[in-house]
Amino acid sequence: MKEVFNDKAEVVSVVMPVYNAEKFVEKAIKSIVRQTYTSWELVIVENGSTDNTWNICSKFLNDSRVCLIHSDKGVSVARNKGIDYAHGKWIVFLDADDFLTEEALQKFIECVDGKTDLVVGDYDYNSKKNGYFDIKDNEKFLSECLANPTQYCNVTANMFSSRFLRKHGIRFNTNLHHAEDSEFFIKCLIAEPTIIKLNNPVYHVFYNPLSTVRKHQKDYVASYVEAILAIKKIMPVSGEKNRNAFYLFTLNQLFIILVHDVFSEISDFKSYKTACKKLNEVLTIPIFRESLDEAHILELPKTKVFVVLALRAKMHLIVLLAVKIRRKQNELQGKHD
User: Fold this and answer.
1) Would you tell me how many other CB atoms lie within 10 Å of the CB of residue 194?
2) Does residue 253 contact residue 181 with C-beta atoms inside 8 Å?
3) Contact 61, 89 (CB under 8 A)
4) Are 186 and 118 in contact (CB under 8 A)?
5) CATH 3.90.550.10-classified regions of the chain
6) Which of 3, 13, 84, 269 is the most buried (most CB within 10 A)?
7) Coil, strand or helix at 137
């Protein structure tokens, strides 16, 4: 690859897996090309598309900062290959159906120093603030992230030190098909990075009803349970605070299952009864049952506290109404959960 970077600048490698993304990948790429911070490389990792994605991405190869490589199928496989290929001091992850705000990379770079390992940014629907600050208490921050994982336990809207990732051997778990980004992010936090919280909106999520996280799958629940148990293995859950943080994380994954699986297709009373039956089955899964029974839930957002109380009381109709409200909010705000 031809090196064209300014030697005095810190190169940011943007890693973007793409799969059948012909309808939106061009906008994602252009959001990098138009960055006000110009010392970047875009590593596009194509992993088995059957549409025109490869040809669309190829149009941008006249910019020597853009590279297009191939990997086997799977978003985690693609991201790992992107990490291994990246030349930059920093790594930012971008999904092919989303885009970065124009000043995202500049805002990231402006707040780092020689000790920084991780910068946690904001989504544009969540913050209109400015500025940044150091995270002083990593354990407390871990608890906050686990209590609100759809906001914080993601790899998007963040910037990672490539040195830090390689030093600790942090990679995506290719055996996981859901919440793999949460597992990656938690592994980073457990490795005790020096963290800066950036209060600038740097990332825009495009609400795509057909994306992987929303697609109805036969083993959807089992896949999430597998991810939760994988995270439990790496979590320091010996203390009460950490144990409760893990319970809150598990409940948040349960909320995702309610929105995108259990109550995803309610059209009449018969489908509602079927959904309630499935919910009862989900609630017998030990990790969900334990979390519902044992979690101290006041650290959750108020709306989620309300849902937990309804679940504990087996008030399924109220849960359904909360899910409908949540889905509408997602559509309006473009959020993933």
Assistant:
1) 17
2) no
3) no
4) no
5) 12-204
6) 13
7) coil
The CATH number given to 12-204 is 3.90.550.10
Number of helices (H) and strands (E) in the chain: give both, helices first.
14, 9
Cα Rg for the chain, rounded, in angstroms? 20
- In whole angstroms, what is the distance from residue 10 CA to residue 38 CA? 10
* 180 close to 226: Cβ distance less than 8 angstroms: no
Q: pLDDT tens across 201-216, in order?
A: 999 988 665 554 444 4
Residue 59: which residues within 8 A CB-CB, separation 6 or more?
none
Residues 6+ apart with CB under 8 A from 323: 258, 259, 263
Those residues whose C-beta lies under 8 Å from the C-beta of residue 281, and which sit 6 or more positions away, are: none
Q: At what angle do helices 180-190 and 138-147 cross, to 10 degrees?
A: 170
CA angle at 237 for the pair 235 and 240, rounded to the nearest 5°: 145
Nearest-angstrom CA–CA distance, 189 and 145: 10
| β pairing state of 99-100 and 195-204 | antiparallel
Round to whole Å and give the CA distance between 68 and 276: 46
Pairing of strands 195-204, 132-134: antiparallel
Any residues with CB less than 8 A from the CB of 98 and at least 6 apart, and which?
28, 156, 203, 204, 205, 206
Read off the amino acid at residue 76.
S
Could you tell me how far CA 226 lies from the centroid of its own chain?
17
Q: Could you tell me whether strands 118-123 and 40-46 are parallel, antiparallel, or unpaired per DSSP bridges?
A: unpaired
The residue count for the chain: 337
**What is the distance between the alpha carbons of residues 337 and 328, in angstroms, rounded to a whole number?**
11
- pLDDT (tens digit per residue) in 257-280: 998 899 988 888 899 999 999 999
